[in-house]
Amino acid sequence: MEHFSHSSSSASSRGDSNGENLAEEESSCSTSNSCPICLGPFIQESYLDHCFHKFCYNCILRWAKVVAYKQSCLPSSVKCPLCKTENFSIIHGYDGNSFQQHFVNQEFGSSAFFSKAHKYRLQCYYIEPDSLMSTFKVPQYWKSRKYFQPNHWLQGWLRREIQALLQEEDVEIIVHHILGVIDSLRRKDQNSPSVPETREETFKALVCQAARPFLTGRTDRFAREVELFLASGLNIDAYDGVYMQHLGWKSPGITIEEVDGESTRNAPLVPVLYFFDDSDGND
Hints:
By secondary structure, this protein is of the alpha+beta class. It has helices at residues 9-28, 57-69, 116-124, 132-135, 138-143, 154-166, 172-191, 196-215, 219-232, 236-246, 262-266, and strands at 2-4, 45-48, 54-56, 78-79, 86-87, 89-92, 99-103. The chain contains 11 helices and 7 strands. It is elongated, with a radius of gyration of 22 Å. The relative contact order is 0.10.
């Protein structure tokens, strides 16, 4: 991380030049107050150094991480998600007098936790899940007693899901917060049962309320994914297998029809998972 100010002639020149560009970008983007990546309000505004498109700092930093994970060596540049211009650094913390600059080839810290399973879940957020609602029989889930039964795999699934979305390893506080909200709602509904439609809407509203401070623009989609996982009644590996097969992502170890079987809900199914890479055409 480098910090630039007007304390030296070279830094001053660079600061003046980039400051003018930042000011121009700020003016041109004044009609848009949403980050193109998370779709939420800008948090810690930042700019790519060549095209000067604006993003939340954490959003564009995570975007750079995702790009880096796809390559065998750490890249020295990253393409802008909007215009595909090559950029070499992220400028942030601009206050009119100075700014900070994060170069793309800086170490991002430990990324050992970010597995192919994390990558697959992150890419799922770029497709529409509507067709999966019937596959996992979501309406029936809210009408049945399955809603009141604890899901032993939910905590692990939430941990991986939030890690994938935030590109952060330590998400335990968020996981326990959301789990607490779900458990509290389930206990409350057992004592005062509601109609299925109300139960579903209340569930999604409370999950969104708990997750929004952390997931911002992806919160609503996250709540739908939680609903899908709970309705499936499957363990994590089996759920991944059905999800990927339904989307045509070649997971041969389990079939969609098996979701209807009692054995699927009670026995641990471990399909052979197929994770795509750049050659699969699912970027």
